[in-house]
Amino acid sequence: MNRRHLLIAGALLLAGCATTAVYTAPDAGMVELEPLLAASVAEGSLTIRLLSTGCTSKEAIAFFVEKSGGRHAVAFGRRKLDRCKAAPTPVDLTWSFEELGLPKGAWVAVVNPLGGR
Fold this sequence. Notes:
Signal peptide: 1-20
Largest sheet: 4 strands, mixed
Organism: Caulobacter mirabilis
Radius of gyration: 14 Å
Number of domains: 1
Protein name: Lipoprotein
Keywords: Signal
Order of helices and strands: HEEEEEEHE
């Protein structure tokens, strides 16, 4: 486990989830949890709203899922910094439960800080 993964695991432990972690990739590249403007679950999908200056896509965001019993904690972090120069604008990104490795009807908590930057 490297320093980046330790930071994510520590945040999830503080959220009350202490089980074996499932990563999207061993080198997901998350340095810190991305501040979100909002998060919502609807019809088997999870949507997050975050600020972008023009270069944020799903491919630029990595996710981390912690499973404990019937509960699932999800954390999001940037793989790539958004280095575009447009005015910061809210962007909605959606993942299906299947993409996140979550069962249908799963109880989901997003552990990222809310409030944006």
